[in-house]
Design goal:
With 364 residues, the chain is an alpha/beta fold. Helix content is 44%, strand content 18%. It is built from 15 helices and 14 strands. The chain has a 9-stranded mixed beta sheet with strand order 5-4-6-7-3-11-12-13-14, with helices on both faces. It has a 3-stranded antiparallel beta sheet with strand order 8-10-9. A hairpin with a 2-residue loop joins strand 13 and strand 14. Helix 12 runs parallel beside helix 14. It is globular and about 70 Å long. This is RecA family profile 1 domain-containing protein. It comes from Prymnesium parvum. Keywords: ATP-binding, Nucleotide-binding. It holds the Pfam family Rad51. GO terms for molecular function: ATP binding; ATP-dependent DNA damage sensor activity; double-stranded DNA binding; four-way junction DNA binding; single-stranded DNA binding.
Amino acid sequence: MSLRADRRLARVAGIERQLQRTLEAAGFVTCRDILGVSVIELIEALDVDLDQACHLADVVAAEVAAKPRTAHQLLSRMSETSYLRTGIRPLDAHLGGGLPHRCVVEAVGPAGIGKTQFCLAVAARALVDGASDERRVVHIDTAHNLDLSTKRLTEMLELLLNEQRRDSPVAHSCTVAELASRLLVWRPDGWDEYCHCLKELEIALLAAPARVTLIIVDSVAAPVRAHFYTKDQRSTRQEQLVAHTALLKYLADTHDLCVLVTNQVQGSGDRQMVDFASSDCVSSVLGRDEARLVCCLGTVWAHSVNIRLVLERKAGWASASVASTIGIGWNAAESQEIRVAKAPMCANCERFGYKVGPEGLRSC
């Protein structure tokens, strides 16, 4: 059943107000509640005649059913796609302009490689570029990393604003405080609270006066691995991940925004898996000391995201003194790469060097 089935009946046009009150009193809250019972059950529960029950079922079904589109409509929509800049110009050019709207983009890599820095850089540029339209960014901080990164974000915003004013003196005047107030932060604890957060977010998107341009989930692996940690839960986890990705895609497509999620990596004692991960592929990640790692959440998740960007490193791990100086685990002075492991609009396995600078990520 479509994700639209979770739409509340109060938001469905064509249902009379008196019938709305009757539905609420009978315990029918969402479209799914109506579609999950027969017409006879509706007649008994609502005390209505056959014609009214059939009309109600038809109205709800029409609200939930996906609307078909022609190839011409899809092509026209693609030509109107908006993009979010990452700050790495060759990567943005390779992707056609940056991270596209109406897509779920995944950034995956070892701990300390700069996944959160990447998210902050994209968020900062989205806020600055959308300042005149009061665009907003939603950050779902499941890893609780944002407290330590708030100062870093304001630093990026200040530098990007100064750069914008220097390049365009007539640019929209906006302060760092105003832009920072447009970053909405949710900090769910655990998988259940995270799922509830997404449902609340859908309602907030419908009610928000200013359009959200970016949703960040940092990270999606944290609540999943903490909640589904036994082998017996593996099938349940896959089902939940499929439904979860479908919801993210629905939000991205319906509200014309970009969803950026981060994922973690793990080792494998399976020799076959190690050999599989030794070549450029969707799930391979180069870790510390050239260790071969694989992305978390499995193949089903890998096929579900639209774009997968792998953050890797060529050289060794930074020394403790250097790491503490730059504030991240990897030595930013040495080469790091983003590899396009999966993208429908361009060639895969392209690599782009980057460094973490004061204004975020930049080419090197």
